[in-house]
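So, can you check this record?

>
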Amino acid sequence: MRMELYQWMKNLAFFHVLGTAILHILPDKRYEQYIRLFLGLLLVLLIISPVFAFFGKSSELLDGFQKYYGEEEQERMKNEAEGIQEAFLKEAYKNELVKQVRDVLNDAGITDAEVSSEETAPEKTKTVLIKIKLQRDLTKEQKEAVKDGLKRSCGLEEDQYQIEDPVNGLEGVGNRPAAGNPSSGGGTSGIKKEQ
């Protein structure tokens, strides 16, 4: 009993020296109150540990802590694994969609187009936007074949893709008129032109 009491007093002294050293090496004093709170909680645990040891409850306390910590850690790891899996599936989906769009373009006789994908916001309704950048102007038949192929083969509606034509500009998403009424003065800003 005497050795346990001596060991307990040594632990308290060591803890006090260590706590003081930690407080003195803090680079920013803003965190001092949080460190003091944490050290105070550890000190309380250190002070009452002989009481638990005397009643034989220290192992139960430690076992309970390990059990709950283990459960929390497993839940965190499960959530992290699900997030990684979801990100992997999204990336695989985007890559497969780009491949299918390239196949549709090849079927229409377009081999020099750049195809890319990006996620659109908002966060809860994220969808994939396919961007197609053409190097040359397409015939009307090619445009219709591409639009039909994107809808039929890829399941893409007109608001899910964007075709950039070197002659006509953007088509699909982003091809919305600017604010204002073009008939109110010839400009899209709504400001009448000076004659």
